[in-house]
Write the C-alpha cells for this entry.
Amino acid sequence: NAGVTQTPKFQVLKTGQSMTLQCAQDMNHNSMYWYRQDPGMGLRLIYYSASEGTTDKGEVPNGYNVSRLNKREFSLRLESAAPSQTSVYFCASKATRGRIANYGYTFGSGTRLTVV
Amino acid sequence: GDSVTQMEGPVTLSEEAFLTINCTYTATGYPSLFWYVQYPGEGLQLLLKATKADDKGSNKGFEATYRKETTSFHLEKGSVQVSDSAVYFCALSEVMNYGGATNKLIFGTGTLLAVQP
C-alpha cells in the first residue's frame, strides 16, 4: 500500500545547484503530475505526463525538466536552482481508464525544498 | 482559462460548530469538482467529488453540491471536530473543448480550518 512515494522529503540547495526529485507509484496509474505549493497560491501544475512516453508543460514549467522513466516513475529536475523555487513539491498520479479513474488523484507526501 | 476561487482563511471554529467553506469556479464546459484535504505535514487526500450538475458529494460528514447556476461547490459540515483541522482545497478537472478531460486539476488557494476544543 505504498501509493505515491517521493524522495527526498527535505532538501536544502545553494543557488545554481542541480537536483532531481524522484516520484514512483505502484498503482499502475497512467497519468502522473508534478505540482508546487506556495503560501496563498494553492497548488500549481509544473509538468504532467498523461501516459508513459509523453510529457507536457503545465502552468509554471520554467526552470524545470521532467522525465517519465517508465510507467511507475516520473522525476522532476532543477538544473540550476533559484530561491524562487523554494517550495513544497507534490507528485500525484491518476488512473485514466476503468472504474478506478473515478477515484481522483493520489498524492505523495511532498518534498520541502529550500534554495538559499 | 479555468479557475477556482475559495474563501480566504483561516477559519477558526469551536468544536461542534457548523462549517461552510465557499468555492466558486470559472470553466468552459462541464468540469468535475473536488474537495481535497491536507493534514499537517501530509499530502492531499480526496475528500469528496461531484461529476455533474446537482450531484452531491459526501464523505466523513462533509458534503458539497455541484451548483451549475451559481458555479459553486461550497463545502459544509454540520458539526466539526478538532480532528478536522486541516487545509481544504477546492479543485476542478479541466475539460477540453471537444469534451474530453485533460485530467489536469486546477486548485483554489486553500482554506485553513482550525477547530478549537
Summary: The interface with chain B takes residues 4, 31, 33, 35, 40-45, 48, 50, 58, 90, 92, 94, 96, 102-105, 107-110 of chain A (CB under 8 Å).
